[in-house]
Design a protein that fits this description.
The protein is mainly alpha-helical. The chain is 75% helix and 5% strand.
């Protein structure tokens, strides 16, 4: 599905916003983990669609480069994509992931902040934030980030497991 853009006074408004709203409502109401996983996949597919075909392909190229271990190329592609399409939340999220992989946590934090500013329901960004906080030993912050995921995506098996594990760790550490 290609995102259709309306241009108003130089601003682009994605018409798939209504689709995402509907998907997030369904995700919150999902009764089974299978149902939730299917809706999650639909959300990811929607996020991967850029505001232009070129942006979508550039993101796909960056992801391919990341998957092939070509991290410098992926960073160049994502930097260019963000420069030309600064309101494309998934470009910021993918660059946050890349910075995390590269160990550049301060840049990853900044990109997650931008992702969440553009798409506050981005459970992937919230989850990544939780992982970084955990890696840095900031357990309270990690729990809060994963709880933010659960507010958006109550059936998230990963964040549910992380909250439980981190809370147990927190209790052990306080003894």
């Amino acid at each position: 599905m290609f995102m259709i853009i309306i241009f108003l006074a130089g601003l682009s408004l994605p018409l798939n916003a209504a689709t995402l709203d509907q998907l997030f409502d369904q995700l919150k109401a999902a009764e089974t983990s299978t149902q939730a996983a299917n809706i999650e996949e639909d959300i990811w597919q929607t996020w991967l669609q850029g505001p232009t075909d070129t942006a979508t392909e550039q993101l796909a190229s960056a992801v391919r480069a990341m998957n092939q271990g070509e991290l410098t190329l992926a960073l160049v592609l994502l930097d260019e994509l963000i420069e030309t399409t600064p309101k494309y939340a998934e470009a910021w999220n993918k660059r946050a992931t890349l910075h995390y992989i590269m160990g550049n946590f301060s840049q990853s934090f900044a990109d997650i902040e931008q992702t969440i500013a553009l798409e506050p329901r981005h459970f992937g960004a919230w989850s990544g934030l939780g992982l970084m906080f955990e890696k840095l030993g900031q357990i309270d912050a990690a729990i809060k980030a994963h709880q933010a995921v659960l507010d958006i995506y109550p059936a998230s098996p990963f964040s549910r497991m992380k909250v439980e594990t981190l809370m147990k760790q927190q209790r052990r550490d306080s003894i």
